[in-house]
Write a structure and sequence with these properties.
The structure is a single chain. By secondary structure, the protein is α/β, with parallel strands linked by helices. Helices cover about 35% and strands about 10% of the residues. About 25% of the residues are buried.
Length: about 170
Amino acid sequence: TNQRRYAITSAIAATGVPALVMSKGHRIEEIPEVPLVVSDKVEEIKKTKEAVAVLKKLKAWSDIEKVYSSKRIRAGKGKMRNRRRIQRRGPLVIYNQDNGITRAFRNIPGVTLISVDRLNLLKIAPGGHVGRFCIWTESAFKRLDGIYGTWRKESTEKNGYNLPMHKMAS
């Protein structure tokens, strides 16, 4: 459990390093900041058209256009095993409360949605490669300190867990 928490906190930290996110292949040149934190009003979006408008306004749509252009047929035997088409991963949207956000974003290819309560290592770092482009809602970003704690303060939701100290300074 401790090792998994260490891995998840390291993967979350890597989503805030622009060089790692760009090396993963995400188009984040025009994005104002990394990690990208948006207001909680995004959680109330219910229509996909509104979600697309939000992504275009945040300049994150170029990453989804890359997903559209990457749709292709899988190499190998997977085609016969009902795994015919593959595409690359787009941004990961992390929310605190689902007030329609999952329905709005689920039909956009490449976009993955995940609650901050159920952060999954394979969603944050698919294939074991850290540096996925994450879009956080404000309340989800604030909850991270409560879930994982800080260097000085213990976690309030996980028993006796502190953030691991970094081995290197960047």
